[in-house]
Write a structure and sequence with these properties.
It is a single chain. By secondary structure, the protein is an all-alpha fold. It has helices at residues 3-9, 17-48, 53-79, 90-107, 114-132, 134-147, 151-173, 176-182, 191-215, 233-241, 244-275, 281-302, 308-324, 333-369, 374-402, 414-439, 444-469. Helix 4 (90-107) packs antiparallel against helix 5 (114-132), helix 7 (151-173) packs antiparallel against helix 12 and helix 14 runs antiparallel to helix 15. The longest helix has 37 residues, at 333-369.
Length: 470
């Protein structure tokens, strides 16, 4: 079978515009709590719950050992799931309510002894990010690979998904702290206000995911060596690590999530202590993520001009430029906002392409090993994000503590202020460079046509064998 034949075969996999919109709503849902966790949680712990930055760094670092592994385990769970709602989609229904509850527990830190407080944070952090969020976000992301095998449809789904993705971030970064400031009883310094507002956001996020579950459909019928049956772990695990592109994309997501954590968390500290105005945090993040809404839609018109890998490299270059531009005037609101704008432009091609690269790696894995482990390969994204977020948050906590940062103080030392500035500017720059280096080893864009041709020929042979057996 040639690729033209394949394109005719997948006409039945067309996805309606409304379904694509609903899938984008699921992306908003996953980003709401993730943004709270990456952009605001460390500051909440240090400045509102009054927990040592070093303690938070240690808790997050230890948690990531469990967190990243849980994503790979969840991927295998998805691949072994069978239900009337499909393999991945059913988990949207199962985990929406636990997602909202765990998000609130994350903020409900009791004012008790330091050790007991640390234990509570460790438990609720892992409940949210290691267990609930993993079984919430990973199945959602995997569902796209079962909605269609048509590359054009996947690209359209992902473009709409990524165009809507910043909405969740903006709802948090632009509005969350401003709403807190207006709430009675202490504004941002009141833990009660944090709990109430987090609950509102969490319930809204759960509702969006339930809407996504009710609307999207799984259409792909698996045709691998297992005939759609459950893959034993003793076969699935070796197959996963024979996929070199799974490993590359996992590493890329580690450093991309570290970038998101550094940029998001340090933007809060930078605006508060270097610029001296916490209210512009929303402006900076809106410039960064708001531009991606328009830019992602424009990307759909020009994505054919070069490969997915090259678009991601271009994105990383813009991220680096958005960091280094701050050297022009580190305290200027206009310059800081412009830097956020450049970073947002840089994130556009990365977010627009990287998830379709994961889908390509799933096809490569089936071609390479004969087994389709979509959930496990999709965990390259989520496990990489978890490891990167944890490592990034831990590094921030340890570095800030080692350089005399104290959230209880009204002013910070010169050393602490220099550390905040260096992490926000040079830390992000270094991570951008690492992302580019990793992408230089990715060649699946060129190999994909051959991979698909051979894979489709194998699947055609499977169909012929089934017909012969009948």
């Amino acid at each position: 079978m040639n690729l033209n034949g394949f394109n005719k075969l997948v006409q039945k996999d067309r996805v309606t515009g409304f379904e694509k919109f609903a899938y984008g709503c699921g992306e908003i849902s996953t980003n709401i709590v993730f943004t709270i966790a990456t952009s605001l949680l460390v500051m909440f712990y240090t400045d509102v719950a009054h927990v040592s930055a070093a303690v938070i760094g240690m808790i997050i670092a230890i948690s990531q050992v469990f967190n990243g592994v849980s994503d790979i385990a969840a991927g295998f769970i998805i691949d072994r799931t069978r239900s009337k709602y499909g393999r991945a989609r059913v988990w949207m229904l199962r985990m929406s309510v636990p997602y909202a509850i765990a998000a609130v527990l994350l903020i409900t830190v009791p004012q008790i002894g330091a050790m007991a407080q640390a234990i509570y944070i460790f438990i609720t952090y892992n409940l949210m990010l290691t267990v609930v969020y993993t079984l919430f976000q990973l199945p959602f992301a995997t569902t796209m690979t079962y909605m269609t095998r048509d590359q054009n449809e996947r690209a359209k789904i992902n473009i709409i998904r990524m165009a809507m993705s910043p909405i969740g971030n903006i709802l948090v970064t632009l509005l969350f702290t401003r709403i807190l400031d207006m709430m009675p009883g202490g504004g941002m310094d009141s833990q009660r206000n944090w709990i109430i507002l987090t609950a509102v956001y969490a319930v809204g996020a759960a509702a969006l995911m339930l809407f996504c579950f009710a609307t999207v459909r799984e259409r792909v019928v698996v045709k691998d060596e297992m005939g759609g049956e459950q893959i034993p772990l003793k076969k699935a695990l070796p197959a996963l690590f024979k996929n070199k592109y799974f490993i590359m994309l996992f590493l890329f997501f580690v450093f991309f999530a570290m970038y998101q954590t550094f940029a998001g968390t340090m933007a809060t500290y930078y605006c508060k202590w270097i610029v001296g105005d916490t209210k512009i945090i929303g402006n900076v993040n809106t410039a960064c993520f708001g531009i991606t809404i328009v830019a992602t839609l424009l990307l759909g018109k020009v994505m054919h001009l070069t490969s997915k890998r090259n678009w991601c490299i271009i994105g990383a270059i813009f991220i680096i430029a958005g960091s280094l531009v701050l050297l022009v005037d580190p305290t200027s609101i206009a310059v800081v906002t412009f830097g956020g704008l450049l970073r947002g432009i840089g994130m556009t091609p990365i977010l627009g392409m990287i998830f379709t690269m994961i889908a390509d790696a799933i096809e490569y894995g089936q071609w390479k090993t004969g087994l389709r482990t979509a959930g496990a390969i999709q965990s390259a994204a989520t496990s990489g994000q978890k490891f990167g977020q944890g490592i990034g948050s831990a590094l921030i906590g340890f570095i800030m503590e080692a350089n005399q940062y104290n959230g209880d103080l009204g002013t910070q030392s010169a050393q602490a202020l220099n550390t905040i500035s260096n992490l926000f500017i040079y830390g992000v720059t270094i991570l951008g460079v690492i992302m580019i280096v990793l992408l230089l080893f990715y060649h699946l864009d060129k190999e994909y046509p051959t991979v698909m041709k051979e894979l489709l020929e194998r699947e055609a042979q499977i169909d012929l064998k089934k017909k012969a057996e009948k």
